[in-house]
Design a protein that fits this description.
With 328 residues, the chain is of the alpha+beta class. The chain has helices at residues 40-49, 86-92, 99-118, 166-169, 176-192, 203-212, 225-234, 245-248, 252-255, 295-302, and strands at 2-11, 16-22, 28-35, 60-68, 71-79, 121-122, 131-134, 137-140, 147-148, 157-159, 288-290, 320-323.
Length: 328
């Protein structure tokens, strides 16, 4: 497929995300790209995403290899989500999403997690930045840290310290219960516009606090009793006591939510040129992916291995034509 690369709308630690469209139609999609020689993680993400079919997971559209500026690039093509990230939406809502809409998004994320977990896949990095919004609501995206649970062998710990579950911070395991913890942290993000953990000085001290203290993120008192009870089921420090996605979908908190995104006073951009999507912000997002010999060693090393994630729209970029040499 011949396609045209547009503005860069996202930057991660290794890959960049651009908006794109077909040369022979006006169909718009998103492309996540990295140099082919550095594309091992993106190829793993492509393999996982290509096997998923759910209305609550960002849709896979194919991949290819292109030559651009004398470099071979690996490109993962995905559904374009016009509303940006959930974190963007929180900012637009003045730092707090109304509880009914928060519950609506929570239910959609849970439906996505239930689907993933039923297929033996853990996302491993649930947070507002990895939830994308569109006309139908929320979808889970960014499977760079995802893994098959029963794959066997040693696996590196992946994810964002601020949203990591205690067992992950200790280096013990990273499975489906860790996604539920991440969901709980994301709900706090929606409810307060802030981080699930307060008074954090650096990633290493945060990981130590998560791993070895008896604390959990504080549940916002401004929430209803049902919302607080729901959160308490997500944020149990013992992974075995945490509720599953299937159990949480039956919680009465979710029964209060609207069945249609149209019931909420939210707007979605109709064109990629209509709205400034994924604006650059001062938010620092510590995303790590590494294997360490021990929890204590990990905590020592984290402070020097943090990455910054900034979303931005670069007005000086130009559309370029890309011709694929791979398969879709």
């Amino acid at each position: 497929m011949d396609w045209i690369r547009g503005h860069t709308i996202g930057h991660g630690s290794t890959a960049a995300v651009s908006v794109a469209k077909s040369r022979f139609s006006d169909k718009v999609f998103a492309v996540k790209s990295v140099e082919l020689s550095k594309s091992q993680l993106l190829q793993k993400e492509q393999k996982i995403l290509s096997e998923l079919r759910s209305p609550y997971i960002v849709r896979y559209k194919g991949y290819d290899v292109t030559k651009e500026k004398d470099k071979l690039m690996f490109n993962l093509m995905m559904e374009y989500m016009s509303g940006g990230t959930l974190t963007d939406e929180i900012r637009k809502q003045s730092g707090r999403i109304e509880e009914r809409l928060m519950g609506y998004y929570t239910k959609q994320i849970l439906l996505g997690l239930e689907y993933l977990h039923s297929r033996g896949i853990a996302h491993c990095d649930i947070k507002g930045h990895n939830i994308l919004l569109g006309k139908t609501g929320a979808k889970i995206a960014d499977f760079g840290c995802a893994r098959w649970i029963d794959d066997g062998g040693a696996k590196p710990i992946g994810g964002t310290p601020m949203f990591m579950a205690p067992e992950v911070a200790r280096g013990e395991e990273q499975g489906c219960p860790a996604d539920i913890w991440g969901l709980g942290c994301t709900i706090i993000e929606m409810a307060t516009g802030g981080s699930p953990w307060t008074n954090v000085t650096n990633a290493a001290s945060l990981l130590y606090r998560i791993a070895f203290s008896r604390q959990s993120p504080e549940i916002p008192k401004l929430l209803s009793l049902q919302a607080r009870d729901f959160l308490s089921k997500c944020l149990r420090r013992d992974a075995k006591e945490r509720w599953t996605a299937e159990e949480l979908l039956k919680h009465p908190f979710l029964d209060l939510n609207s069945t249609s995104i149209q019931d909420f006073a939210t707007s979605s951009p109709t064109s990629i040129l209509d709205q400034d999507i994924w604006n650059e912000s001062e938010n620092v997002d510590y995303t790590i992916l590494q294997t360490l010999s021990s929890p204590l060693q990990r905590l020592r090393d984290l402070s020097s291995n943090s990455g910054e994630l900034k979303w931005r729209w670069n007005d000086d970029e130009r559309w370029i034509t890309v011709r694929s040499s791979g398969s879709e």
